[in-house]
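Ticket reopened. Same input as before:
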Amino acid sequence: MPTLRLTVDGVARKVEIDSRTSLLDALRERLEVTAPKKGCDHGQCGSCTVLLDGRRSLSCLALAVAHEGADVVTASGLGSMDEPHPVQQAFLDHDGYQCGYCTPGQVCSVVGMLEEAAQGHPSHVTSDLDPEALIDLSNDEIRERMSGNLCRCGAYAGILDAVRQVHAEAGNGTGGAR
Amino acid sequence: MIARPIETRAVGAHHDRVDGPLKVTGHARYAVEHGPDEGVSEHLTAWLVGAPVAKGRVLRVDATQALATAGVVSVVDHESARRLDDTGEQGDGELAILQDDRIHYRGQIVAIVLAESAEAAREGARLVHVQVEAGDHVADLDSEEAELYAPEEVNAGHETDWSDGDVDAARAGATVVVEGDYSIPYEHNNPLEPHAATAHWDGEVLTMWDSTQAVHAVASTLAPMLGLEVEQVRVRAPYVGGGFGSKGLPHSPEVAAALAAMAVPGRWVRLAVTRQQMFAMTGYRSQSRSRIRLAAEPDGRLLAIEHDAVAPSAAVKEFVEQTATISRMMYAAPARRTTHRAAALDINVSSWMRAPGEMPGTFATEVAMDELAVACDVDPIDLRLRNEPATDPETGNPWNDRRLVECLEQGAERFGWSGRSPEPRTTTDGDWLVGTGVAAATYPTLWMPGNGARIESRTGGRYAVGIGAVDIGTGARTVLQQIAADALDVPVSAIDLAIGDTSLPAATVAGGSSGTGSWGTAIVQTAQQFRADHGPEPAPGLHTQTTTESYPDMAGHALHSFGAVFAEVRVDRWTGEVRVSRLHGTYSVGRIVNPMTARSQLLGGLLMGLSAALHEEGVRDPRFGHVVTQDLATYHVAAHADVPPDLDARWLEESDTLSTPFGGRGIGEIAIVGTAAAIANAAWHATGVRVRDLPVTADAFL
Ligand code: FES
Ligand code: FES
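Engineering reply: fixed in the latest deploy. New output:
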């Protein structure tokens, strides 16, 4: 079995994997890192979202063997119970969750999404595609950019408010920064 | 002792979710996330194999290739599985898996593969060859072989047929008759955490972490089936990733988890149902059809309501939603007649999904009321005001406090209803046709007896409160602490609450909007008994445990919640695209225990109603018998971009101590009730096209 080296939430880890193992299963089944959730196992729900080398990524669609040496950050690595990440604090402030199953993925997705917007990546609803133009992170933009993360509890209103809060705190579109 | 009403201080006030930090940092542990630090090491992964046909017999489960696969440990089939002692009162065909060779529906569990890794288990499952003799199945309600019958009763013990007054005479004498057929497709709960369990059998005790809405019900269902005493089954559910009814009753994967663990004594087994398998194995809302006939005076006053509901039911286990019961109590028509008919099909087993009965029934009746308003040229709100019953039309009992009128009036005020044109297709915004609609909502107060609670005094003025309730995301863990604090007259911070474990006093299901009321009453009753036993300043280590028998004034009053839903819908005149731009709910649900968690729950219900209105449709292919839209791409549930820009839930300030000692009724279901009707009514107002079948999709407007 191949051995994979990963940095997970800041800690160097080695894990024996099968060539079929998804990054999600490497984390959940082999490393007992269960912050990323398995809601569908094939890229349709977003609950497995992690930051993979700094970008939000669906870990159920990533084959672990293809990510030797990668840096993986899950919701547990973004903040702790005592010192939550600003995005996590905003979710608490606005009740952006109920059952909590989609939440670690939502949190990672928000962090990655704010960074994408800061870098000027357009979305489906961006009207000005000039690469130099700043993204105006309107509610429509946030809703669109967060639509890969399903929440069956329907906590979207709180999630939107949480993103707005973080975005406002960070000022002028650099919301991803800690 | 029966609980007495309490003075509320913490109840009604904001209180942070006590499990929030665990959830947002990913440390809350769901059913298959318990690891070595909790004693779960070297676990096996179980993978379920479903029947490849809708009816027939298993000739042989050929596991040769699977067992030759590296990592596969065992394949359990109908020949090798442990024999179940008892399969429930009438023989529960849903749960009695792997006991014989009969196939009742496509996707029924016919084998369990156990392997050292998830990859090996999945590969092994692919290599299990299930040889079958296929029989002729019927999976279509419209098939000639689908025969309708009257079930003995419908869900929640309601009467199948019920009538009051002379409907035929009333209709014959009526000036206005509105008639229509309304339908709901198959809908699937799809909690984001798939049904899953971690199980272990040591020869004496079966230990499970299960994704369930009712730990005690899982134990008391599984124990007799497995030939065990209920004490020999320990079930825990500290965190559950949603349920919406589908985890309310045990389903076959829970039996599979138990059988798998018992096949490998001493080893831990993790079993997670795949998203696709959930569409076959874990319950769903049945498709249903309602024929409605409303007879009225020219001014809209109802003379008669007829509501005939038809739905398929699994041949292997009957479940029939109480779709027509809404018409027994909602409006003041002197004559009402309601029936339920079912057809037993070779399909998987339907079950509870958020507001079973009220949700589909209200879609039908509230769209029909909108049609009546048009027929009588009466404002839809006035129509409902004209049909307000002074007492409960079903029982004749006085209402606890029926405040539908206030919900409608306050909702209308906030929404800006007045001045709305009665004509459809009168408002446009660019290419959008814009319309507004309203619907009423109701949900009964379901209060479950038999809930126990245990309270123990600790040092420093703290109290341990234990009850086997489950928090599936509702906020139960938080609101029960608030209730306990008020009942004991101490600060919320003095309460150490334990839930979600069969080692705690028995609790009923987190379902039917009954949890907070039923569990909260048990806590109040126990707290009051504790004070009677041990006084206001007890020494540490004293405890009291009680179980509820009764509280609410069910016999004396008709106990219901009410609400009004307002929607603004936009339909693109060229593409038919339907968007909900505004969605408001106003509710009378008794005292709100925690405004933050309550708002989230009500908004979540409104969104699930929107999702049913516009998106959700399980499509069963009658040739094969299964739902083919078995994933989250082909079965779309509302995503973030589907949320209306103006989404709002409010409630009336009130307290209902006839229902519970803290004055609150349940809120989990009511916000899905009526929502799809309000949206369909608004779509009519936008376009002039009346849609009577959910979901409301673009093709209706082209
Ligand atoms: S589990 Fe990866 S997207 Fe659903
Ligand atoms: S909080 Fe339950 S699915 Fe999002």
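Residues A 38-41, 43-48, 58, 60 surround FE2/S2 (inorganic) cluster (ligand 1) (CB under 6 Å). Residues 146 and 343 of chain B are 6 Å apart (CA to CA). Please confirm and we'll close it.
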